[in-house]
Amino acid sequence: MKVSDLVKELDVTDMTIRRDLQELEDQNLLIRIHGGARKLDNGSLPFLELSHREKRDINPDAKNEIAKLIAANIHDHETVFLGSGSTIELVYNYLDLNYAKIITNSIYVFDQFKYDDRFELILTGGTYRSKTGSFTGTIANDFMETIYLEKAFIGVNAINDNKVFNANEDEGVIQRIVLNNAREKYLVADSLKFNSLDFYQFYDLDTADYLVTDSKLSPELKEKYSNWVQIIN
Predict the structure, then answer these.
(1) Which domain holds residue 10?
(2) What 8-state DSSP symbol labels residue 178?
(3) Is residue 207 part of a domain?
(4) Where is the HTH deoR-type domain (predicted)?
(5) For strand 163-166 and strand 200-204, is the pairing parallel, antiparallel, or unpaired?
(6) Based on the number of CB atoms within 10 Å of its own CB, is 72 exposed (0-12), middle (13-18) or buried (19 or more)?
(7) How far is residue 121 from each of residues 21, 68, 210, measured CA to CA in Å?
(8) Is a pLDDT exceeding 60 seen at residue 130?
(9) Does residue 106 share a domain with residue 193?
(10) Whether pLDDT at 117 is above 80
(11) CATH number of the CATH domain containing 209
(12) Coil, helix or strand at residue 42
């Protein structure tokens, strides 16, 4: 469609249409061309990476339920990595500790903990991804290669059989490094992410120790995925 046709049809300004088309292209919903936009050539959507803000509004009850379970598995004086994600961001609200060392590559997790003296807080640094609020790349990876963790909690976008996926390869690399350096490896996914796929496979499910999810996971799916990992829900 042409921008001029959209302006007439929707009775809004040219600037509004161009801004909205840019936002839709950023979400991989269309392709902008000179003077307008067209649908994707293949007629279907590629894997769509949602922003942190968009993820916050999805399945909030499940996110809080999972955050409580994560908090229950963190104890005093442990060194813990909390990864990026709208679920893990909520963990701070449910922690009842005197002291723990928290390492994260998420600016949103960092913001939750930064004024609380009970926690020794470390932000990895690295290349900032504004879409998810996470730090990735060589600086973050090199730092995490040197860190021993008692526990790591890593959010995932999709799980399919023994394969674990997310939407970005740079985030997948640091997540894999973190999990490999942790004594106890926890993957985090709500029940909507089972039997699904995303862009980048970064881990095998049977290499993790635990998978934390919500109570809406069906008995059938719990039985299936328990063949690879211990499920906490």
Answers:
(1) 3-40
(2) H
(3) yes
(4) 1-39
(5) antiparallel
(6) middle
(7) 40, 20, 24
(8) yes
(9) yes
(10) yes
(11) 3.40.50.1360
(12) coil
